[in-house]
Amino acid sequence: MTNSQRDFKTSGKITLIAWSILIVIPAVLYAFSVQLFPRIELDTLFAEAWFWITSSGTVPYGIITGLILLIACYYTLTRQQFIPLILTVSLSMAATLSLNHFLKPFFSEPRPYAVLMQQENLLNLNDFYQADNAVKKDKITTSLNLLATARADLVLSPAIKKHWQYEVGYSFPSGHTLFAVTLALSMGFYLLMAGQTLFPLMLFSWAIFMGFSRMLLGMHWPQDVLASTCIGGMISFASIYLIHKLSPTIAVLQKLSATK
Description:
2 domains
C-alpha cells in the first residue's frame, strides 16, 4: 500500500461521514417542515440546471451516468481495485432497484406536484393513482393545460412539464436518490481506498444535488429523500461488507484467470 492509499477502516469512516452529511440535509428539512416545492421559478435556467441533475438519474440517462462513472473508475483504479468496486456496485444496484420497485406501491404516497394539482381542483388523486400509466399521463397533461390558468405564477419549462408527465408513479421512496446515494457511496469507498479524494467528493456532491433536485422540482417530499438516503447507505455498506468478506475468494479467482 502506497502512502496515498487508505485502508479499509479509514475509507469506511470517511464514507460514513459522507453518508451522515447526506442524511442531515433532508433530516433538517423534514424536522422543520420545510418544503422546497414550489419555491423556485420552474421556467428559468436555474430550474433547468436542477432538471439536468435529476435527468442524470432518469432512465435512460441514469444508465449512461452509471456507465460513464464505471469507465472513469476503470481508468482510475488498478484491476485489483476495480473488480471489488464493480461487484459492489452490481450488488447494491440490484438490491436498490428491487427494493424501490417493492416500496412504491406499498406506501402509495402521492407526489408533491400531484398534491398541488388536487389542491387547485385540477386532479382527483384517488382516481389518478388507480388508473394505468397511459391514463395517468393523459390526466396530468389535461391538468397541466388548466394549471396555466389556475396558477399563473407557476410556469413550467417544456422539459420540466414533460418530466411531470413522465413521472406519474408514487412518491416514496425516491428512486433517483436511492440510485445516486447507493452509487456514490459504493464507488466513493473504493476510490477513497485507492487514495482518491476529488472524485469521491464529486460523487458525494452529486448525490446531495440529486436529492435537492427531486424536492425542488416537485417530485419528492423531504421524508422521501431522507428515507432513500438512509436505505441507500445501508445497502451500500452491506454490499461493501459482503464483497470484503468474499475478497479471499475473489483474489483466488483473479489469480486463476490471470494464469489462463
